[in-house]
Amino acid sequence: MLKVYDFTGSGNGYKVWLLLSQLGVPFERIERDILKGETRTQEFLKKNPNGRIPTLELADGTFLFESGAIVWYLAEGTEFAPKDRLARAQTLQWMFFEQYSHEPYIAVARFWKHFLDRLTPQQEANLPDIMKKGYAALDVMEKHLATRQFFVDDRYGLADIALYAYTHVADEGGFDLSDYPNLTAWLARVKAQPGHVAIDHKF
Amino acid sequence: MLKVYDFTGSGNGYKVWLLLSQLGVPFERIERDILKGETRTQEFLKKNPNGRIPTLELADGTFLFESGAIVWYLAEGTEFAPKDRLARAQTLQWMFFEQYSHEPYIAVARFWKHFLDRLTPQQEANLPDIMKKGYAALDVMEKHLATRQFFVDDRYGLADIALYAYTHVADEGGFDLSDYPNLTAWLARVKAQPGHVAIDHKF
Q: For the GST N-terminal domain, which residue ranges apply (chains A, B) (predicted)?
């Protein structure tokens, strides 16, 4: 059986088991508490040398890391994977956008405010810039969704899963989505997909 | 003909035209000076709503952004693309690693030190953390290369192109690679590939 090393509340981990749930693929979820350094142990670094969740263990013991790579692997050949060359590239475009221009701001603000007891002075100093860049990412999404139901080919797929994970909990990072009607409507469409499970699902 | 919107010296842009050069595909390179805000104009935001280079324009006027998505599109069906499902996922694993755990530190330190006249106090305050995380990424690469010639399937491909772009100029960000023998040997192997062009190639 597939094993998913995860940390409760992680949007990156959520992408993996949201997809697995919608695929109907059974998996074992194994908690590793990043706040206690459980992904930086010698044992865990043998699974993922970068010391992060999510990490996927295949049935043969092969490990894969990076949420984007994991969901790409799992979705190949299914309805969630893009069908043609351009759609594959556009899907990756939004997945890389998420990891480079969205997650480092929206997920980081959420992590600081939702998971930490208090911020360091350096974090406090960086927070305005983090919020500004997070809103810039939301602006890009809002504009793209003005004429579309989903991110690529107007059908639900990997790009939506990747972007939904942290956008739908952006409020926990202090982001106000009330001026983002297209984004809010898209969040509702994603949530209404068959087999959807919530990020606070109890395993 | 393909058009590549680029900024001289960008490692992300370099990935695209290094691959195009090695594929022997003709392209037009169009400079957009990010230091002068030329990727944030209304005209450019119609090409890439995220306002960044590289941006690829296909012959039919379709735009693609994010270096990882662009090289994936260009490499499909060629010797530079991974051949099977696991290799595709492992290639994306290293490409996402590059954009999340490597580029934001190694490329950012280089940008600050190599392209800016002086750092802001906030940049100065963040620099030690940036350098530490950059070295952590180099450590992961060094370990992976201890038993391999290239990042995936022991053949040169997209993962190598993605990671080479900023690693080979890491010294311009103040990173010292003298304690990274595996990395240094891999850099030489990448540079020796047929059709290799340097990042300071004059167009």
A: 1-82
> What separation, in Å, do the N-terminal and C-terminal C-alpha atoms of chain B show?
16
| H helices present in B145-199, as ranges | 158-167, 181-191
Dist CA A98 CA A92 (whole Å): 10
A93, B69 in Cβ contact below 8 A? yes
Could you tell me what percent of chain A has a pLDDT over 70? 100
Q: Which one of B69, B86, B96 has the shortest CB-CB distance to A89?
A: B69
Gyration radius from chain B CA atoms? 17
> What is the spatial distance between Cα B184 and Cα B156, in angstroms, rounded to a whole number?
15
Is the bond leading into B54 cis (omega within 30 degrees of zero)?
A: yes
3-state secondary structure (DSSP) of residue A112 = helix
Q: Check: CATH 3.40.630.10 for B2-75?
A: no
Structure tokens at B16: 């695209």
Tokens representing B166 are 């900023």
Q: For residue range A178-191, list pLDDT tens digits in order.
A: 999 999 999 999 99
On whether the CB atoms of residues A19 and A12 are closer than 8 A, the answer is no
Q: Name every residue whose Cβ is closer than 8 Å to that of residue A77 and which is 6 or more positions away in sequence.
A: none
Using 50, 70 and 90 to split pLDDT, how confident is the model at B203?
A: confident
C-alpha B75/C-alpha B157 separation (Å) is 9
CB distance B59 to B2 below 8 Å: yes
Least Cα separation, residue A203 to chain B (angstroms): 26
CA angle centred on A138, ends A135 and A144, rounded to 5°: 145
CA distance A121 to chain B (A): 11
The CATH architecture to which A85-191 belongs is Up-down Bundle (1.20)
The ipTM, to two decimals, is 0.98
pLDDT at B159: 98
Report residue A8's pLDDT band, with 50, 70 and 90 as the boundaries. Answer: very high
The full set of domain ranges for chain B reads 2-75, 85-191
Return the residue in A96, A106, A126 with the most chain B beta carbons within 10 A, the one to mutate for interface testing.
Answer: A96
pLDDT digits (tens, 9 = 90+) for B170-183: 999 999 999 999 99
